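agent> Task received from the user: take the single chain below, predict its 3D structure, and emit structure tokens. No templates, no multimer pairing.
agent> Plan: (1) validate residues, (2) run structure prediction, (3) serialize to tokens, (4) report one or two observations.
agent> Step 1 OK, no nonstandard residues flagged.
tool_call: predict_structure(input=
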Amino acid sequence: MSETLFGKIASGEIPVDLLYEDDEVVAFRDINPQAPVHLLVIPRKPIPTLNDVQPEDAALIGHLFLVAAKMAAREGIAESGYRTVVNCNAGAGQTVYHLHLHVLGGRPLQWPPG
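)
tool_result: status=success, residues=114
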């Protein structure tokens, strides 16, 4: 897999204002926000899509969601509500082929989106 923008962010090659980081994941604000709060939580491990997650990645995927909940609380949207989204492949809107979890909130969110 070629190095992606998110892979370069996760490795520290491209600096961003990290909101959270540990040995497994990093979190930062989306540069094209779709809500008042729009964060991305990404694994440091390069996993292209949700289809590429393996059984040995189960703890990592769980950790992504734990960090998302922590970030939602830190951003003040945990109680009012937030959405987590993983887009898988182009037909679902995935544009960067490095697995990432969107955390959106800060306003009422419609379902279906649109």
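agent> Step 4: summary for the user.
The first helix runs from residue 5 to 11.
agent> Done.
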